[in-house]
Amino acid sequence: MKRQKIKFPYEFDPKRRKLAKVYSKRKLITGIINGIVIELSFIALFLYLGYNLALGGALAGLGALAIPAYIFVFATLLTAVSFPISFWSSYVYDKKHGLVVQPLRGWLKDFFKSLALGYVFTIPVFTGLYLLLPVQNWWIYAGIIYFFLAAALNYIFPTVIFPWFYKTAPYRDRAQIAKLKALCSKAGVSVSKVLVAKESEKSVRANAMFAGFGRTKRIVLFDTLLDKFAPPEVETVVAHELGHYVNRDIWRGLAMDAVKIFPVLFVMDYVLRASVGSFGISGMGDIASLPLFLLAYSLIGLAMMPLANTYWRHREARADYFAISSTRKPEANASTDRRLADIDLGDDDPHPAIEFIFENHPSIKKRIAMAERWKKEHAGKSRKSDYDMT
After folding, report:
1. Dihedral (C-alpha) 217, 258, 297, 118: value to the nearest 10 degrees?
2. Does residue 296 lie in a domain region?
3. DSSP secondary structure string, 235-303?
4. Largest CB tally within 10 Å, which of 5, 33, 254, 278?
């Protein structure tokens, strides 16, 4: 594959920076309106007006299928309510700014794939949950099951779910493959495959993944990354993802979820028990409580969002440090951050309150500052890598 000439190192485009401020603000506002105001208001009204009880009554004749049918209908209603703004934000608005290149037919195909996948996981999980609710201390068993389901989903995502949405093919640049495998080998990780995913059929966004376990370990590069980024930048992106793998961030995330889910479910147990007799809820295990369950769970999640995002910003910063110190290319890391921000129209310096509440990555400004600081601290030192694997 013949590589086009790419300007390196990359500097910010002032016009893109100005546009990014407007774009990021509108995306945030529409996300809050859709994900918080509209969806939560719909769930609250569904409860207040008694539609939760009416839906349960309408499906009662289905017997054992009443619970999965209720979940399917309510999930479909919630999707329909949020679809207009979601469609405008993720397709119309992004296409207007050149971020999405996918035809409407392709976008809708991916949307319905995601919807079907959501049903495949959501309906059995919530059906099992509502069969478990009448059991004493159900929240303990549910927390344990949640952990193993989350681990299984992480395990199958690279090899089962991801290929359902993306065409992949082996990467053919042998020289670059050798560099990437050497980078992994230096960190004590062997990789069997380097694949290319056809993101260019969907958007201009660039990314990479270090995916799989055991013999299925592979590097997945978006073709947009290879087409728009210089080789040193590609290396830093892979090094960042490798940093997550070496630092065991997937397992850290699962462990954090395991610690978090038990108190959350304990609170949910209290909410559901206290609500028996209200909103037409007859008892624990009554599927009519599903909207209440989702409303309470969402509100708890919102309350915990700043804490969770603070933790993940820390883990992302550790992956950044790994990438800089393992490649010893701080200029390439900074160049990558600037190019990514311009391509994605990301705000490089959001308001501290917005970053604290909503962002799970450090700001681009902070990531570039880390690269510049590392360069000053290591000026003239040995080329030997000194990355931190904690």
Report:
1. 30
2. yes
3. HHHHHHHHHHHHTTHHHHHHHHHHHHHHHHHHHHHHHHHHHTTSTT--STT-GGGHHHHHHHHHHHHHH
4. 254
105 assigned to some structural domain: yes
Whole-structure pTM value: 0.89
Separation CA 248–CA 234 (nearest Å): 22
Phi-psi region of 357 (alpha: psi -120 to 50; beta: other; left: phi over 0): alpha
196 contacts 223 by C-beta, under 8 angstroms = yes
Is 255 among the domain residues?
Answer: yes
Phi-psi group of 169: left, alpha or beta (phi > 0 → left; psi -120 to 50 → alpha; rest → beta): beta
Structural domain count, the chain: 1
Tokens of residue 23, six digits: 């774009």
Residues 6+ apart with CB under 8 A from 216: 158, 159, 192
Cα dihedral 373, 366, 254, 156 sign = negative
Domain carrying residue 160: 14-167+245-377
Question: Does 158 sit behind a cis peptide bond, omega within 30 degrees of 0 on the bond before it?
Answer: no
Q: What are the E-state strand segments in the chain?
A: 168-170, 193-197, 208-211, 218-222
Backbone angles phi and psi of 203, in degrees to 5? -155, 180
Q: How far is CA 174 from the centre of its chain?
A: 31
- The series of mean pLDDT values per 10 residues for the chain, 390 residues long, is 75 97 96 93 95 93 93 97 96 96 96 96 95 94 92 84 92 91 88 91 93 75 95 95 91 87 93 92 93 94 94 96 95 97 96 96 97 89 45
